[in-house]
Amino acid sequence: MKALRDPQNLLSEGLAAIRAQFRVPDDLPPQVRAAAETAAARTPSQHADWTDRAFVTLDPATSTDLDQAFTIERAGEDLLLHYAIADVAWFVADGDPLDVEAWKRGTTTYLPDGKANLYPPALSEKAASLLPGGPRPAVVLTTRVAPDGSVKLEGVVRARIESRAKLAYETVRDDELPAGFAELAARIAAAEERRGAGRVDPPEQEVTRDAGGHFTLRLRPQLPAEERNAALSLATNLAVADALLTAHTGLFRVMPEPDVGAETRLRRTALAFHLDWPEALSLTEFEKTLRAAVPAEAAFMLAIRRAGRGASYVPFREGETPWHAAMAATYAHCTAPLRRLADRYVLQAVLAVANGQPVPEEVQAAFERLPAAMAKAESRDGQIERAVIDLAEVALLANHEGEQFRAVVTDLAESGARIQLTDLPIVARVAAPGVIPGETIRVRLRAADPLRRHLDFERVA
């Protein structure tokens, strides 16, 4: 759950209700945990020795399920990104208990107070995780990044790597990172700008309690190290997608452009936050002007995220070019196999393609089944994320019953007018016959029920 942090467990009762409602599993079945212990003892035997290279990881300080490690070297004017990805397929075989359970889950499900792992911790946080302290099996993807930010997959190999350091976003220094890290990120960002990519990296919402005992929401923008680290994964995924598309195989991440209705609602939301969005400026262009350190603009970034039509997975189809509108490119997921089921199969496919081998039949078959399995998992995770954000919003207004708020009507439905409060990043519904979208109204909070995640407003003007 990257949309909300609750470091003091202030919302524990409400989160417990969400876990029960969405049947988030507390643990893995005993046979799955036993299979993980057996798999964790496997010794890598098909992996080249890359332990002489200075790989590092970069993640939140508390993370232990580390999918990626990296090192960078120069090749003339180009940069070579060696991106090591946890070799989950080395530990998990099709049809074994680990695999069967992973297909049921699809993803690791995150909540502010914990997570439900895709794979048991014996793998995801120990043997398969790219932690320091000994060689780990990985799939190393080497991507050539040109000065203009264009990328090309140079090679893929199974290798034993040894992370030299577990670096944290919160504390990392530039001199601890491989040379070329910031330059590589800048190249990728420049290429995104030229493509017209419209990615949004909204800030985290963090729940705190003020001196009066009221809940408050603090918006925390991404740290520079986080933004730069995301570029490494993006470069690799773009290069993998191109390689798979050329080979007429693969599983791709696709996303449509925001529809006209969503953009219209967002323009009204911008009005609520007193943001100047010129009529001639597209959503993609306006996004690039937003600053996560400015509360109103950060809140609008979160509104954009909630308004999106959503991404999905599609297998390769002859004559079709899969497209991800936010990336403005053909795109694939392969860099988080400890947390996403699909990535394990994409990695196996690109490993075969890059080495001139046929993609295994079981991988090709999985590409046909994965879109439905991942859609189910992502739908569940999306519902949980929305429920958690709703919980935080209701908690934020607890003890404020009777107070009035200014709001802008963003949409109309049978359930009432959809409103955006102008001074808080909160969306709600209110009965307001006769209003029109874009109209400013005043509402009074009648009740805020965190356990039901329900806000009850009435229109007063």
Automatic annotation (TrEMBL):
Coiled coil: none annotated. InterPro entries: NA-bd_OB-fold, RNase_II/R, RNase_II_C_S1, RNR_Ribonuclease. This is RNB domain-containing ribonuclease. Signal peptide: none annotated. It comes from the Bacteria. It comes from Novosphingobium anseongense. Residues 47-356 form the RNB domain.
